[in-house]
Amino acid sequence: MTARIIDGKTIAAGVRAKVAGEVRRLSSQHGLTPGLAVVLAGNNPASETYVRSKAKQTVETGMRSFDHRLPETVSQDELLTLVRKLNADPTVHGILVQLPLPKQIDAQLVLNTIDPAKDVDGFHPVNAGRLATGLDALTPCTPLGCVILAKTVHDSLAGLEAVVVGRSNIVGKPVAQLLLAENATVTVTHSRTRDLPAVCRRADLLIAAIGKPEMVRGDWIKPGATVIDVGINRVEGAGGKSRIVGDVAFDEAAKLAGAITPVPGGVGPMTIACLMVNTVRAACAIAGLPKPAV
Ligand code: NAP
């Protein structure tokens, strides 16, 4: 068997087009333009690239983008003051504080200070709790992207054996909650799991969010399974050039899987597209409007 490739780039473009359509409708019917504020402290090059892409896609989907750059030396008080100002700003519907933060900052305290209604990263404990209890919540973007990708393969995830490798608050735990909400039978695995390959071989839907290059091998895959690879790992390639690989050994896994995401070009593009989705959802909720069609 050769797996169907799940083309995250094209699927993300489709999601952004739907967001743009909803933004046009909100503007014409309600005079509402969703706004996303992104806060970047310091000059981490990877964070700068992410923040640029986020601002670009925000503008391209017709929303307002507010960029806040702070120096590496910013104090906790300065950062919290900015977050509180954005909480109170009616033109801002989504607030994202780019992680990692400089070492003098307590990142959890910053995340906890964001108004949960504007928490488009979905990291606030209120949103994590709402997701876990089955209430409407702003959900973390990468997990949301994983579920959208899985649903391009399966009309319904109900009853599927889903195995999640990794239990981080950013990916593993929220993706497990989303899959549970879709009525999958979910197993969450981690570094202490016994016989991980055997657990993975049970999966109709396997989500790998580990951060270990190509750890999931071909013989861990149940024939016909759907494999969603969240990993982004930079490794040394031929001629000393670096390249990006996922947490799944793609060539081996693609021989057995029914469908698989590539890295890059799978989950990655979905993350920012889902940030756009969350910003429109937050804007509608704050304005007391029905959920948007995206
Ligand atoms: P993380 O916080 O480091 O969590 C990694 C998880 O993997 C932990 O739960 C850890 O288990 C588990 N793990 C580590 N080694 C393992 C092993 N040998 N066997 C089984 N489980 C193991 O990482 P993360 O933030 O979730 O990110 C995971 C990967 O996704 C990274 O490559 C990251 O770059 C990527 N990522 C991509 C996107 C995107 O937009 N595509 C977004 C976020 C993250 P313990 O809990 O037991 O330590």
Structural summary, described in words:
- This protein has 294 residues and is α/β, with parallel strands linked by helices.
- The chain is 41% helix and 16% strand.
- It contains ten helices and eleven strands.
- The chain has helices at 8-30, 45-60, 76-88, 107-113, 125-132, 141-151, 172-181, 196-200, 250-256, 268-287, and strands at 4-5, 35-41, 64-70, 94-97, 161-165, 185-189, 205-208, 226-229, 233-236, 242-245, 259-260.
- It has a six-stranded parallel beta sheet with strand order 1-11-8-7-5-6, sandwiched between helices. The chain has a three-stranded parallel beta sheet with strand order 3-2-4, with helices on both faces. A two-stranded antiparallel sheet has the order 9-10.
- The longest helix has 23 residues, at 8-30.
- It starts with a strand and ends in a 7-residue tail after the last helix.
- Bound molecules: NADP nicotinamide-adenine-dinucleotide phosphate.
- Residues 142, 165-168, 170-172, 189-193, 196, 209-212, 230-233, 267-268, 271 line the site of NADP nicotinamide-adenine-dinucleotide phosphate (NAP).
Provide a brief overview of the structure.
The chain is of the alpha/beta class. Helix content is 41%, strand content 16%.
